[in-house]
Request: fold
Amino acid sequence: MVTYIVRRLITAALILLGASFLVYLLTAASGDPLEEFRASSAPNKQQLMEARTELLQLDTPAPIRYFHWLGGAAQCLIPFANSCDLGKNIAGQPITDALGHALVQTLTLVTGATVLAILIGITLGIITALRQYSTLDYGVTFMAFLFFSLPIFWVAVLLKEFGAIGFNNFLRNPEIPIPAALVIGAVIGVLAAVTVGGEMKRRLLIGGVVFLFAAAVLMYFSATEWFKNPGLGPLVIAIAGVGIAFAVTLLSAGLKNRKALQSALIAVGVGLVVYFVIQPLLDQATFLMIVLLAIAAVLVGMGIGYLMGGYDRGQSMRAAALTSFLVGFLILLDRFMQAWPEYFNNSRVRGRPIATIGASTPNIEGDFWTLSLDSFTHLILPTIALILISLAGYTRFTRASMLEIMNMDYIRTARAKGLSERTVVMRHAFRNALIPIATIVAFDIGALIGGAVITETVFSVRGMGFLFLDGITHVDPNPVMGVFLCVAITAMGFNLIADLAYSALDPRVRVKA
Amino acid sequence: MSQPSQQDEIVAEDAGLPQSAAGIEPVLEAKGLSQGQIVRKRFLGHTGAIIGLVVFAIIFVMAFTSVGYWGIPGWWKYSHDEVAPLVNDGVPTASLWPLAWGEHPFGQDRIGRDLFAMTMRGAQQSITVMVVIGLIAGFIGVVVGALSGYFRGWTEAVLMRLTDVIIIIPGLLLAAVMAQMAGRRDSGGWFSSFASNNGILALGIFLGLITWVGLARLMRGEFLSLREREFVDAARISGASNARIIFKHILPNAVGVLIVNITLTMSAAILTETALSYLGVGVKAPDTSLGLLISQNQEAFATRPWLFWYPGLFIVLICLSINFIGDGLRDAFDPRQKKFNAKKAKDAGHPLEPTPVTAFDGTKDD
Reply:
């Protein structure tokens, strides 16, 4: 095992050396960094050209410059020396600083989108695999292909037009006319009817109920101007919490496990009490506090499950912990909604909350809630765009993996010995289907750092992709090399992790020593 | 095909077991047909793939006949760089009811160029790039994958390390370098003169030279597993040369995987080309491409939305139809493809106690 890892690391270092040499030469060969000065008619043209020649060391040939750069980069390997030198960019800023800023921007942009895409994609993939050749399956498959074929810059422009400008106009006067409410309700109803599956009668019934409910809620929102003063309130949290409790128990322990169901319901009750107690505390919230509260919620849930006991304590603990985490999320959502009017009327936002470019409103001031809402409203459109295009891959892959597993002999054995369908799907099939998915997830996380060049360009986020593209357009090798180094190292690192994870998850696969 | 393929084995297995497992339908329709016939039959039975094929054929014919190609004139009256007087401020004249084509069916841009001609030209470019990339990437991928998978040892080590190096060099950088070289018309090298005259071909060749890596890895995997099969041993014992074994014995068995993945590479290639053109390092004005059209016209969305809709629509249509064709091919070539049907599994799982179809509507538990 250790031999294997060491060998992989040495190979990776050699590949990195070769590839970085090529990248440096290519960037240097991709154009003339003095071009903008040659065409200019500034009186100090000669001086500017000389200054830049000195800054980029254009007198020395590119291969020698590469070794100079390599010498600086090699200092990054010395731990705690803080002597990392990746050179400076064309404006004279050290690359290490620029990379730090860009990395933060990119990670805030891409992390949420990737996590959501993975979660939604895997869920959809499993459901479509279980309902193979149903309307839902065909619908999701078609959507997956469609999203797969969408150019992201096209989607981004559409989102800007309808998601931001259109929605902001709607918020100015948030009234939903009754026909529109009915149509939206009908669409949601049809979706529900397709999703639930089962007999025609059951589908129609559920579709109808959902249609009526959705249309009524929309009309209520319109009448009370909910979109201007959104909020959930304890009542909605209670109802949604009970729903969550049932769903979580159904998936994790089965409704027959009464102790687990009771634990989850108690967790909802505790959550409701906490909702009233915690409001003053939340007014002074910080990010750290939210994280600590989330951990506390999970611990409380586990405590409830532990105290309830039952024949399978672990199941009760799991159900209650998940439920209390989700109820905590609802409380958080409610608090964000309470902060919405303040954000909406902020002098910087001026009633047009959904932003089309950048990562935050310039010079905005406010408490934690306002600032967080500000980054959410800036992140929402790029996140949707990224989710749409990466969702398809996960859905298709999970579906294929799940279908293959469902045809396995041990699944038939599990059914034959009389296990419930829930146990077969969640315990026997789902876990094994996750093995191949784990590897592509590792790849994608490795590729995260590279950022999304096009998304960053369209939404003017100054992340890694922007840095890279900027370096290329200015024929400036140092930022390009900096980004390349980060991307290549993480990609190869996660590649190795994926291989190791595969052999750890699947005992049939062994790495060659 | 001379060797018993996986396909035949599966068929034989299924024929021996008429009562197969619950919910898994045996591939009985494959009886007595050659592999080519089975694949063709399955592909033609795949509705999505056929629709994709028809749509793609229509777009292909329309794109290449309307504005002409390589100097051959087309039937459409405008060309993509011809400025015509603005008709009705450039609003599209095509309408469904009454069905009419009009002077400028997709509208005109600000200076009066015909959007239909520009879109068709862009579609030509996309299809050309796609085919060039598919051919080049397919060829190099097969050769590299086959050599490293078949010979192993040093060949494999060298070729796979080369693949590793190419896989981590960003494609955007290579495209930018190429765009720069193509832009230098004055320097007079054979490459820059070729690239500036046939921008799209040069781009396609360049992208092809870097997209083969995925295919090579895949083909290597196929060759690694196929070379251990008995029919390869049999061929070797009967004195077949390495070339003969690779091309006559192993490659036909790997062709399904190859074709499917070339299709997928091609659909990804269209998006890559449009994205590069959008970023300004692909096709450059005065020539046009679908990505370039969107990039030029995204600011005009509020005033002339059609300039934005039609190029995007054509990207999506081409890419979608190729994806569906690829999906159909995958289903057709996959010999293990059996239809698992949860409902049948339930019915066959006999009358003792009906199990719920899915986890989510089951309440009878544990």
Notes: DSSP finds 13 helices and two strands in chain B. The radius of gyration of chain B is 26 Å.
